[in-house]
Amino acid sequence: MAETFLERLRAATAKPHTELETLPVSLSITNPEITKEDYTAYLMLMHDVVKDTEDNIFPELEGIITDLSERRKKHLIENDLLVLNAEAKGNNKPLSSHLNNPSKAFLLGVFYVIEGSALGGRVILKNVKEKLGYNEDGGAMYFSGYGTKTGSCWKKFIAEFTKYEEENNCEGEIIKGAHFAFTAIKNHLA
Description:
This protein has helices spanning 5-21, 24-28, 36-61, 74-83, 104-132, 150-168, 171-189.
């Protein structure tokens, strides 16, 4: 059976994806010994990533991803930080500051990584709930993803994502964008 575009994308980004997931800060939020300080530090770093994506990448993807406005999550992180008595300070741009006129396909690859993190967030949510007591109503809104709609939101995104690739024959650019995003986020979190 022939390998699909999504299989090739996953294979091409497996190494940087694993490198990101195995950073100490990434491991700290899935660790049974998670602390409020670890969790707060992670949210502060992810706020930079999500804010940068929403401010600088979302505008380029209008019309490609039809429900983009419903996929905004910066306000969720900010609400969680308030519950944690913290505030996002920096105006770091871990993604866009390293880009020079990228194609829409490249940016779609970046967004694939950001959107995929909503799936992983469900695992983190379970740990945060059990160990720190935060939940979807406060302190862990960001990791609740789309709640019970997380799976269907992912499927809708993947349908639009693969349709764009098929219509524009841009697999290579999408893969470059996803690879870039995993690496840029890893560098920011490190």
